[in-house]
Amino acid sequence: MTQALLIRGGIVVNADRAERADVLCVAGRIAAVGADAAAQAPAGAGVLDASGQYLLPGGIDPHTHMQLPFMGATTMDDFFTGTAAGLAGGTTSIIDFVIPDPQEPLLDAYRKWRGWAAKAAADYGFHVAVTWWSEQVRADMGTLVQQEGVNSFKHFMAYKNAIMCDDETLVHSFQRALELGAMPTVHAENGELVFLLQQQLLQRGITGPEGHPLSRPPAVEAEAAQRAIAIADVLGVPIYVVHVSCAESAEAIARARARGQRVYGEVLAGHLLIDDSVYRHPDFATAAAHVMSPPFRPQGHQEALWRGLQSGQLHTTATDHCTFCAAQKAQGAGRALGVESENAPQRDQLAGEKWAAAAHLQPTNPKPDQLPDFTRIPNGTGGIEERMAVIWDAGVNTGRLTPSEFVAITSANAARLFNIYPRKGCIAVGADADLVLWDPQGHKTLSARTQFSKGDFNIFEGRSVRGIPSHTISQGEVVYAQGDLRVEPGRGRYVPRPAFGPDFQATQRRAELLAPTPVQRQKL
Ligand SMILES: [Zn+2]
Questions:
Q1: How far does CA 398 lie from the centroid of its chain?
Q2: Which residues are registered as beta bridge partners of 49?
Q3: Could you give the 3-state DSSP secondary structure of residue 127?
Q4: 321: CA distance to ligand 1 center in Å?
Q5: Cα–Cα separations (whole angstroms), residue 202 to 197, 209, 303, 329, 483
Q6: Per-residue confidence at 70, pLDDT binned at 50, 70, 90?
Q7: How many angstroms separate the alpha carbon of residue 157 from the centre of ligand 1?
Q8: Kind and range of the H or E element at 227?
Q9: C-alpha distances in Å from residue 211, one per residue of 214, 287, 296, 358, 460
Q10: What sign for the dihedral angle of Cα 256, 259, 263, 265?
Q11: How many angstroms is it from 117 CA to the middle of ligand 1?
Q12: Closest of 221, 217, 153 to residue 188, by C-alpha
């Protein structure tokens, strides 16, 4: 059991208010907040001086991919190193993704991922992807919700010929999620359009990473977001759109909300700060390192996303942390750019490779092995370690967000939507003692050379931020202190998430009241 810890003199920031208060942590939970915290502290309790600093709920990153398997290799960060990097950045919980192969039973995939995650250093949960449909999938969704504490399902509308959901699967799965009180989530990109545009660009000779954003323009995302939102509207189920990257999708969400629909949007730290000029970088590796989907957008979209967060039309921030290294990214470089032939993946091996899909690769037809092919660059970037600091720096320091609004979009809203509030995302008696002591004057220059993440690239390289975590507390234990990370594999816990969060209770009531009735007619 962890020692009791008293944190004195900080400004406690919750999503609804900020006030100076002491906080006492005992046995991994918050035991007292305010004037009596010091009085209640047991003898021998550790003391942390928080004067001049904010005390925030630990960050929740609701979108990560640790240890994502790919062609016998995996992303650089596994569940230990990825969650450890998160702790160094003030993030104390993640929700990762179980991604079954088409035809793979959901429960088999779920058990596989639970095994991989056992070494996590911070608390975690899972969204489970529905990549195909059958009666078995329907049954497994029930088991996951009712017995395993999964309350959200992911649907990829992109990645044709791999894990893409057609409308039939979307409709079945959304309906089932509604019955179970679980949140459907979507990766909104029209996979048919992406596939067609990729082929056209390659034929045109645009084979480098600059083809990536051209194959996935904002309209491709907006179409899918609108379609998913419309399906959810007809079925009367809430919906959560992951990584909203462009103004068009943000507007689709705002319009639906104005019509009274329960629609939620997630924004990635990278999409708030980086534009699509990175794909025209003359160095292949640098351009390829930014390949992720949806891509970084032209200038202007970033400001639209900030406005979505400011107005409350977008709700959570995440990273899609998915760290493929330069050698893995080089699969899209082709031999002509110097990939050693013995290390170069075989085209036919790639094309049907089952994990091509999960690694966000788009299987295409085998072609001569000479030219770069942007469709073969594994999609993914890092960011779990930087998310809190870059959003504070660009959000709070600029006056776009108050500290309380920062807490809402970095932890509290995710906890509410995925129904683990106030255990997570809140500094209150009884909550988990997951906290970050935030030094608003602390400076740092972000770099791959100094990051804890095992990724070999940093999309925020060279960016200076003001406002960084000085200490991170997980389960009442100081796990990060002024650059010193003290974590062991396996200290993280699986956090079950109950079904039928508040949204579903309201939705159910609404459906009962508005249920259609037949006309009673006299028999002839
Ligand atoms: Zn993702």
A1: 24
A2: 8
A3: strand
A4: 7
A5: 9, 11, 31, 18, 45
A6: low
A7: 12
A8: helix 218-235
A9: 5, 11, 12, 21, 22
A10: positive
A11: 17
A12: 221
Q: Where residue 213 sits, what CATH number does that domain have?
A: 3.20.20.140
Q: Give the type of residue at 512.
A: E
Q: What token pair was written down for 371?
A: 């030219």
Distance 381 CA to ligand 1 centre (A): 10
Q: How many Å lie between the centroid of ligand 1 and the Cα of residue 125?
A: 14
| Contact yes or no for 133/504 (Cβ under 8 A) | no
DSSP class of residue 383? Answer: -
Q: Strands 18-26 and 5-13, how do they pair? A: antiparallel
Determine the Cα angle at 65 with ends 320 and 78, to 5°: 130
Find the helix or strand (DSSP H, E) in which 39 lies. Answer: helix 37-40
CA of 468 to the centre of ligand 1 (A): 25
Q: How confident is the model at residue 444 (pLDDT cuts 50, 70, 90)?
A: very high
Strand order in the sheet with 263-268: 59-64, 91-98, 123-129, 152-156, 183-187, 239-241, 263-268, 316-318
Q: Look at residue 341 and give its three-state secondary structure.
A: coil
The domain tally of the chain equals 1
Residue 128 has pLDDT above 90, yes or no: yes
**What is the CA(189)–ligand 1 centre distance, in A?**
12
Residue 267 to residue 245: CA distance in whole angstroms: 7
CA 377 centroid distance within chain: 20
318 is in which domain, residue-wise? 1-524
Q: What is the pLDDT of residues 136-188, one digit of tens each?
A: 999 999 999 999 999 999 999 999 988 999 999 999 999 999 999 999 999 99
How far apart are the CA of 100 and the centre of ligand 1, in A?
A: 14
Give 65 Cα–ligand 1 centroid separation in angstroms. Answer: 6
Determine contact, residues 91/388, Cβ cutoff 8 Å.
yes
Residue 242 Cα to ligand 1 middle (Å): 8
